[in-house]
Amino acid sequence: MNEKAISAFKAYHSKAPGFGLVDLVLVYEQSGRHEDAANTGKLLLELRPNFTIDGWAITQFQADADRLRTDVAALIAAGLPTVGVKPS
User: Fold this and answer.
1) Do 29 and 37 form a contact (C-beta atoms < 8 A)?
2) Is the pLDDT of residue 86 over 70?
3) Is residue 52 left, alpha or beta, with left meaning phi > 0 and alpha meaning psi from -120 to 50?
4) Contact status, residue 13 vs residue 21, Cβ threshold 8 Å
5) How far apart are CA 4 and CA 74, in angstroms?
6) What whole-number distance in Å separates Cα of residue 77 and Cα of residue 88?
7) What is the pLDDT of residues 59-73, one digit of tens each?
8) What is the pLDDT of residue 47?
9) Are 52 and 84 in contact (CB under 8 A)?
10) For labelling, which of 12, 48, 62, 85 has a CA lying 20 to 30 Å from the CA of 23?
């Protein structure tokens, strides 16, 4: 199942760069492929530098609370920022 999801999210990213990457990070991280998750997270931030977990989370209307907590934890583990960087 995970390989099908990975293939689908990679194809989505190929057609619309930057999209499908959050889901790809989640699949990798939750499958124990931590390095792949971190590398995909870096690519996501290169293509969508304003991405934050908090901003993403408010768009997840269909997720139940447990699923959202699990996904947020996976995104944090992959090194994605929870909030935007404040200027110094």
Assistant:
1) yes
2) no
3) beta
4) yes
5) 19
6) 25
7) 998 879 999 999 999
8) 94
9) yes
10) 85
Instruction: Tally the C-alpha atoms within 13 A of residue 37's C-alpha that lie toward its C-beta.
Output: 20
Residue whose tokens read 């990975």: 6
Contacts of 49 (CB under 8 A, 6+ apart): none
- CA distances (Å), 71 to each of 15, 24, 25, 87, 88, in order? 24, 11, 10, 27, 30
pTM of model > 0.90: no
- As a whole number of angstroms, the distance between CA 42 and CA 39 comes to 5
What are the extents of the domains in the chain?
2-77
CATH class of 2-77: mainly alpha
Strands (E) across 8-66 are located at none
pLDDT digits (tens, 9 = 90+) for 4-57: 999 999 999 999 998 999 999 999 999 999 999 999 999 999 999 999 999 999
Contact 68, 19 (CB under 8 A): no
